[in-house]
């Protein structure tokens, strides 16, 4: 009985995967925008390109003087990182910092009435952190 259920579940997943890969290829041929694959962005733009995301992540790492693993938890399997996971409190802390930094810029440095004030980068992580995880130390 158990085995039969497992077979049904596996069969269903197989079907889902083939359906998903079919829809994916259809979307790719119709779309001119880079297909993105982010699973868990809540404060950065959900359609951020790979290059741009890589750039901001490197900026954060350099500003705090840390590696990716300071904010990102290890993957369940293998020795990589699970970038979408929210297991580390440092990642949640960083989200607050991203929102705070954006707010400082929008509210205080929008001299030119920028049409995209969210992109103003006058105050940066590095201005406070200067290569340290905690500016207080
Ligand atoms: C200071 C903390 C911090 C550091 C260091 C950091 N990240 Fe992140 N990263 C975040 C946060 C916060 C998010 C989620 C942003 C959001 O919710 O919009 C994120 C999201 C991501 C995602 C998207 C995952 C998904 O699918 O949702 C990737 C990929 C990623 N980071 C890669 C990296 C890499 C590669 C490095 C090292 C070069 C790095 N990060 C260093 C804080 C950090
Ligand atoms: C206005 C100054 C300021 C800016 C800008 C700023 N931070 Fe911070 N950040 C702080 C201070 C101060 C602390 C320490 C808070 C404490 O220890 O109570 C901190 C703490 C943190 C921590 C927690 C460190 C720990 O000890 O666990 C993370 C992660 C972090 N910041 C990420 C960022 C990122 C990423 C940015 C840019 C998006 C950023 N911060 C921008 C002032 C700033």
Shape by Cα distribution:
globular
**Considering DSSP H and I runs of 4 or more, what fraction of the residues is helical?**
40-55%
Q: How many beta strands in the DSSP annotation?
A: 0
| Poorly predicted regions | 21-33
Structural class: mainly alpha
What is the assembly state of the chains in this entry?
single chain
- Compressed to H and E, one letter per element, the order equals HHHH
Bound molecules: heme C
Reported for the largest beta sheet, the result is:
none
Mean pLDDT: 84
Gyration radius, rounded: 20 Å
Question: How many alpha or pi helices?
Answer: 4
Strand content: under 5%
End-to-end CA span:
61 Å
Function: The reaction center of purple bacteria contains a tightly bound cytochrome molecule which re-reduces the photo oxidized primary electron donor.
InterPro entries: Multihaem_cyt_PRC_cyt_su-like, Multihaem_cyt_sf, Photosyn_RC_cyt_c-su
GO cellular component, one term: plasma membrane light-harvesting complex
Pfam families: CytoC_RC (PF02276)
Give a description of the structure.
The reaction center of purple bacteria contains a tightly bound cytochrome molecule which re-reduces the photo oxidized primary electron donor. InterPro entries: Multihaem_cyt_PRC_cyt_su-like, Multihaem_cyt_sf, Photosyn_RC_cyt_c-su. By secondary structure, the protein is mainly α. It has helices at 2-30, 50-64, 89-108, 125-129. It has a domain at 50-129. The chain binds heme C (HEC) (2 copies). Residues 38-44, 53, 57-58, 60-61, 64, 66, 68, 70-72, 83-84, 90-91, 94-95 line the site of one heme C (HEC).
């Amino acid at each position: 009985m158990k085995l039969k259920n497992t077979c049904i579940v596996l069969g269903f997943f197989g079907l889902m995967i083939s359906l998903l890969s079919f829809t994916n290829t259809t979307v790719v041929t119709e779309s001119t925008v880079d297909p993105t694959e982010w699973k868990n962005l809540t404060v950065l733009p959900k359609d951020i390109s790979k290059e741009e995301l890589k750039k901001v992540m490197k900026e954060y790492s350099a500003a705090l003087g840390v590696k990716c693993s300071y904010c990102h938890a290890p993957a369940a399997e293998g020795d990589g990182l699970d970038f979408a996971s929210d297991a580390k409190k440092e990642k949640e802390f960083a989200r607050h910092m991203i929102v705070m930094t954006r707010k400082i810029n929008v509210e205080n440095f929008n001299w030119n009435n920028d049409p995209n004030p969210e992109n103003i980068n006058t105050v940066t992580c590095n201005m406070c952190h200067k290569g340290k995880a905690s500016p207080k130390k």
